[in-house]
Amino acid sequence: MLYDNHGRLINYVRLAVTDRCNLRCFYCMPEEGIKFLSKNSILSYEEMVRLITLLSEMGINKVRLTGGEPFVRRDIMDFIRSIAALDNIKKIALTTNGTLTAPYVKEFKDLKISSVNLSLDSLDPNRFFEVTRRDEFHNVMKTLDKLLEHGIETKINSVVMQGKNEKDILPMVEMARNTPLSIRFIEEMPFNGTGQHHKDWVWHHKTIIEHIRQAYPSLEKIPDEPHSTSFNYTIEGFKGTIGVIAAYSRSFCGTCNRIRLTPQGLLKTCLYDSGVFNVRDLMRAGATDDDIKTAFLEAIGHRAKNGFEAEQQRFMGAPVTESMTTIGG
Ligand code: SAM
């Protein structure tokens, strides 16, 4: 079992398999000008398998694949098969925009993929286009249908933005009436690659919940699973649940059980830190398995207490501005 310096169990790694994405969500990255990493600078599949193997020997038993968009990386399913074959890896989860995912869903259960986070910010194809700058709404809905058809636990992640998609909050909630979906609303964070953040922050977890409660007075808090990043609720007669992720308020750090690896191999022990060390460089310099494990242990033994402390400790106190696609959301 792996514990950090604050006594938190660490058993979960989020691995961004690419920084590339086929959407251009405005809250995540600028429409143009993003410099994607060269093939050689991102971790190869062999390097990623080695890292996941080592981490699984240290106590990591859950891997989430994210990006960028995981399904834009060629041969991603072969990589997933390799890590699903590791005995200590009990669960593989995915975060996907769903544009390319549908054809693969039938294989998920055999590959330890029991849960998928599907990003969807609007149920209106025009608003979807405004947010993502791509006409892919119908492909995302195909993936959603497939996930439901194959009984994959699905969480819809929706970033709530004033003037963009607040009209979608209640229709999104309605999706949980007759399906076992978990609809989760996320606070917008400054990770948009532009260096600018909203001036008036309207939609934080409390205002989102109050908005929903006004329309659904039976909204009631339910217990959250251990290490949950969302505060979860039920509505009378609904099959699914509603959640809010206080990603900017950062009120869930006390139970954080995860570390992150960016596509170029930077270890982040908190979303808000600027990276602890680059494990790709270590590997390419010939590090042994023990060297790598020692470096992970050292990093996990010096984690920031929460996202505010991590942000303060960034290099020269620089605020977060990088695009989420380069980190792995
Ligand atoms: N391409 C995949 C997807 O769309 O789910 C995985 C990567 S994406 C960066 C992961 C998640 O980060 C998405 O749910 C996205 O909405 C969220 N995200 C990106 N930028 C964000 C921001 N500035 N604030 C809050 N969430 C953000």
Series of secondary-structure elements, N-terminal to C-terminal: EHEHEEHHEHEHEEEEEEHHHH
Largest sheet: 12 strands, mixed
Please report the distance between the alpha carbons of the first and last residues.
25 Å
**Total beta strands:** 12
Mean pLDDT: 94
Low-confidence stretches: none
List keywords for this structure.
twelve-stranded mixed sheet; 329 residues; binds S-adenosylmethionine; globular; alpha/beta; 28% helix
Explain how this protein is built.
The chain is an alpha/beta fold. The chain contains ten helices and twelve strands. The chain has helices at 45-58, 76-84, 125-132, 137-149, 169-178, 205-215, 279-284, 289-300, 307-312, 324-327, and strands at residues 12-16, 62-66, 91-96, 113-119, 153-160, 182-187, 220-221, 230-234, 241-245, 258-261, 266-268, 277-278. 42% of the residues are buried. The model has no long low-confidence stretch (mean pLDDT 94). It binds S-adenosylmethionine. The site of S-adenosylmethionine (SAM) has 21 residues, from strand 3, strand 5 and helix 10. S-adenosylmethionine is lined by residues 21, 27-28, 66-67, 69, 95-97, 119, 157, 159, 186, 188-189, 191-192, 247, 324-325, 329.
Question: Nutshell version of this structure?
Answer:
With 329 residues, the chain is α/β, with parallel strands linked by helices.
